[in-house]
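retry 2 of 3: previous attempt timed out while embedding pyridoxal-5'-phosphate. Reduced batch size to 1 and resubmitted. Inputs unchanged:
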Amino acid sequence: MISEKCYELGSRSSIIREIFSYGLKRKAEAGADKVYDFSLGNPSIPAPESVKKAILELMEQPPEEVHAYSPAPGDARVRGVIAESLNRRFEEDFTAENIFMTCGAAASLNICIKALGNPGDVFITFAPFFPEYRCWVEGIGAKLEVIPPHLPDFQIDLEALEKAVTPKTKGVIINSPNNPSGVVYTEEVLKGLTGILKKKSEAYGAPIYLITDEPYREIVYGNVTVPYLTKYYDNTLVCYSYSKSLSLPGERIGYIVIPGRLTEYKKISPAIAGAARVLGFVCAPVLFQQVAARCVEDTGDIEAYRGNRDLLLDGLTRLGYSCVPPQGAFYLFVKALEEDANAFCERAKKYDLLLVPSDDFGCPGYVRIAYCVAEKTIVNAMPAFEKLMEEYR
Ligand code: PLP
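retry 2 succeeded.
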């Protein structure tokens, strides 16, 4: 008997991937410029020039520095450079010991959940949420509890959180800037959240961990700031990735911050290494550990995403769509024009508009539009959005 759980996960591909595959088929039939594919969160801007320069320079280094295994937590010098950068930007006091290099945010989260959780534990998250959380939490025999969003701002519903936390709560997972809503949680809300976690941890005599999923930290628009959670709550683990900031999703590189102030730091630090070992990560890609150190504070051209956001938000609002105002990431969360977002997305396909229904994000009735696309895709898609709207008038 094989694992039914793995069979189920592997045979039911994600809705996002299904729509993307459908898009490839439609592009072959109708022509790439006739299909408006807003399904995938693949960065559309190129990696900054510094990445190319770093790779070329690294190719001249001895092979053992770029192709060999590194220690499991990563190259000590790379980890030191990242710690210094975080200290500079967020007034922290991390050292290399507090940084564990990973294969991107997916690995960071999976490792943290496995390191902290036991079967029967509960992890809480907030809708709309990244669907893979369910897979990682259930993968260790724990339960994912989802709290609906505070409306209409899509911030965290603190009252609901207060009621949901119990002695079984091992951790709370947040993602800001958020995929799929584009919302950035405010400092006030985050203070409320960490206040509740402090109070409950004390009442239960056991720490409740905050896992913060931050691949979009740098992708924010205007004067929006993304508070650094270790400053607000000692029992925070930060899961970071260069997939979006450096446009390197295929290279699989990120890290976990394991602050020394964690109540159980002495056990959690080895548990993180143990979880990475069980999951078979061995070490993060060494060439890209070195690239990350050389490009530690660089990003691609975030302004290009801002341009796309404005174009899409203005265009859809003018047509009468109701959109959650996005302050970051590269997604627009839009109210479907009928209750069933799946039916709405099916209808959108008639106009070769490929949108993702929100059910798997735990927040039915919406669609996610990934605007990490060429600007002309947004411009050319507007008549299709207009025809779709007319169907519902
Ligand atoms: N968390 C969120 C919210 C994401 O949107 C993604 C990817 O899209 C990930 C985690 C996984 O990121 P990575 O490619 O770094 O594993």
